[in-house]
Amino acid sequence: MLAGYQAQRALVLSEWESLDDPIGEISWSTGPDTSIFMLKPLSRGSVNIASASILDDPVIDFGALKDENDLELVLALVKKNREIMALPEIQALGPIELTPGANITTDDTLRAALRSLIVPSNAHMCCTNPMMKLELGGVVDGELKVHGISGLSVVDASVFPFIPAGGKSY
C-alpha cells in the first residue's frame, strides 16, 4: 500500500505543479454563497471493516487535512475567495462570509478554524476502492473486478483513484 500511496502522491504533486490541472475550486451558487473544494488532496484516509457482521457500518477515517500541504491549499483558497468577494463588482451582490467567518483573519486562527470546520467529503464518494494494481493498494482491476475475489465487481465512483476535477483552465 505504501508503494501505491507514493505513486499517487507523485501524480498529485505533478498536478500541483501544473497550471493546466485544477487542484482546488471555488464554486459560486446562484446566491451570495460559495463553496471551496480541494480536488487533489495529498492526505489519505482509510475504510476498515469493524466487525464480522454485515449489518455493522465500516469505520471511515477521511484523513482530511492530515497532510499540512492540504491545509495550506485550503487556506490559500479561502484567501483567494475573500479577495474575489472584496471586488466592487462582487460586493454589489452582497456576499457574506459565514464560514470560517470574516472576523477570523490571521493565518493561525484561520488554520484552526478550517481544521474544525472542514467537511471531509462533499458528494465525492470516490477513491475508497481505487482501480490500481493490487501491489499498489488497488481494490479493483481495469475490468472493475475485485482483486482476489471471483465474481465480485465494483461499478461506482469509488473506483476513481482521484477526485474528478470540476473545471480545467485552457
How many angstroms separate the termini?
34 Å
- Anisotropy-based shape: elongated
Q: What low-confidence regions span 5 or more consecutive residues with pLDDT below 50?
A: none
SSE arrangement, N to C: HEEEEHHH
Mean pLDDT: 86
Described by strand count, sense and barrel closure, the largest sheet is: 2 strands, antiparallel
Strand content: 5-15%
Q: How would you classify the helix and strand content by structural class?
A: alpha+beta
Main-sheet strand order equals 1-2
* Rg for CA atoms: 19 Å
Tell me the number of strands. Answer: 4
Estimate the helix proportion, in percent: 25-40%
Q: What is the count of DSSP helices, taking H or I runs of 4+ residues?
A: 4
Task: Please describe what this structure looks like.
Helices cover 29% and strands 9% of the residues. It is α+β, with helices and mostly antiparallel strands and 170 residues long. The protein has a domain at 21-124. The protein has a two-stranded antiparallel sheet with strand order 1-2. A two-stranded antiparallel ribbon has the order 3-4. A hairpin with a 5-residue loop joins strand 1 and strand 2. Helix 2 (68-85) packs across helix 4. The longest helix has 18 residues, at 68-85. 11% of the residues are buried.
Topology:
Elements: H1 2-17, E1 24-28, E2 34-38, E3 46-48, E4 59-61, H2 68-85, H3 88-91, H4 107-117
Antiparallel strand pairs: 1-2, 3-4
Helix pairs in contact: 2-4
